[in-house]
Every structure is written in C-alpha cells, then in structure tokens.
Automatic annotation (TrEMBL):
Membrane topology: Multi-pass membrane protein
4Fe-4S among keywords: no
UniProt-annotated location(s): Cell membrane; Membrane
Protein name according to UniProt: Transport permease protein
Every ABC transmembrane type-2 domain range: 21-247
C-alpha cells in the first residue's frame, strides 16, 4: 500500500510543482487579510498585545488551511469526472491508497502555503519566544487541523455534481474563524455570539496555538482543540470511506 500511495502522491505533487500558482493563489487571500487587519484595522482593535500581527497570525493560518483544502475536493472531482479514478480502482492497488494520496498531497501543499504566510508575517513584525518543542506542538496541531478539513473535503469531492459544488463547502469554513477568538477576544462579543464563538472548534485551536507561540504553556484548552480535530477526522474519514465504497463499488 505504501509504495502505491507514494506513486499516486508523486503524480499529484508533480501537478502542483508544474502549477505553483496554486500555492501562491491560496496564500494571497490570507496574506491580504493579514495586511488589511494589521495596517488598517489593527490600531482600532484592542487585544492586549503590543503587535496585532502576533495576535492575528494563528487565525490567519487556519484560514489559509481552510482555503487550501478546497483544492483536494477539486482534484478528486476532476479525477472522477475524467474517468481516471475508475481506472485507478480497476488496477491491483488498495483503493484506500487513492484517497490517502490526495490527503497527503493536501498536508504537503498546506505546509508550503502556511510557510509562505509565516514568512510574510515575519516581515510584518511577527515574533515568538516559542522553543523547538512549542513549535513542534504548533505544527502538530496545524497538521491535525489540516487532516480534519481535508477528510471533510474528500466528501464533496466524491459526491459533487459540478466543480462549484465541489469547492463551495470551503466558504463556511473560511468564515468560521471570524466568529472566534481569531481576530478579537471573545469577551468583546455580544452574549449569543460569544457563546457560539467560545464553543466552536476554531477558538480552542487558535487559543492553543497562541499560547504555545507566546506563553510557552497551554492549559486544558489544548485537549478541547485536539478532541475537535481528532473527532472531525474520525467522523469525516468514516463518512468519506463509506461514500467512496458506495460511489465506486
């Protein structure tokens, strides 16, 4: 399975290497948002931090991932409509290898895009006191978040009837960080909005990353963040696997 998955992964990565504009295009929107919020709105937003980009970056990274996973749906949709997926499953390879190749491609391409966004944030003044262990924890959380959204992306990629339908699901995911602690503290929100913000996955994930980057410690909130990520991965994986079996026989 590993060798077959590697071959399929190589095919997808070659497509990305030949079209690096995919990574650049995905990075542009969160970078523009970061520039807008830091240099236009940042002076009017009170977060208790000296540099607003430090407060903002964790949420921007999640938006970057939410934007990028739409390409997983698009690649799956394209493979199915072109007949390539049917050809793959007729070959002597484990069928799950096909899906895992798309998921691993998402992990690698997202890592590259997130790296680009962090480089821009450094140019804008982002600084962190985190040590290597803290950064590894941040990478782990971002990786789990990417896996969670990617397996969600697999479902519309397999079931959509059009290209627009395959990618439309990403818009609510991109919007979700706006109703969280990603841009402003939840304490400033009206009660109903605050209740939602404090009990949705993005807030716990953002708070955990922010604590690792600037405080070097995390509280019990990290367990909530991990529970959200792992829970979404398990549920989305089970649904995607069931849909894949039903769709392709």
């Amino acid at each position: 399975m590993k060798s077959k998955t590697g071959v399929l992964l190589g095919r997808l990565m070659r497509n990305i290497i030949r079209s690096p504009d995919t990574i650049i295009t995905v990075a542009i929107t969160p970078i523009m948002m970061m520039l807008l919020f830091v240099y236009v709105f940042g002076g009017a937003i009170e977060t208790g931090t000296d540099n607003y980009v430090n407060y903002l970056l964790p949420g921007i990274l999640l938006i970057t991932i939410a934007s990028a996973v739409a390409y997983t749906s698009l690649r799956l949709f394209t493979d199915i409509k072109s007949g390539l997926m049917a050809r793959f499953i007729s070959m002597p390879i484990k069928r799950s290898s096909v899906l895992w190749a798309h998921v691993l491609t998402s992990l690698i391409s997202n890592a590259l895009t997130v790296g680009v966004v962090i480089l821009v944030a450094l140019l804008m003044g982002f600084r962190s006191n985190a040590d290597i262990v803290d950064w590894l924890a941040v990478v782990g959380i971002l990786g789990l978040f990417t896996l969670a959204l990617t397996w969600l992306a697999v479902i519309p990629g397999l079931t959509a009837g059009s290209m627009e339908g395959a990618t439309a699901y990403s818009y609510p995911l991109i919007f979700l960080p706006f109703i969280s602690s990603a841009f402003v503290p939840t304490e400033t929100m009206p009660k109903i909005v605050r209740a939602f913000a404090e009990n949705q996955p993005v807030t716990s994930i953002v708070n955990s990353i922010r604590s690792l980057l600037y405080e070097g410690t995390v509280g019990n909130g990290i367990w909530t963040a991990l529970a959200w990520c792992v829970g979404i991965i398990v549920i989305a994986y089970l649904i995607a696997s069931k849909v894949f079996k039903r769709q392709l026989g």
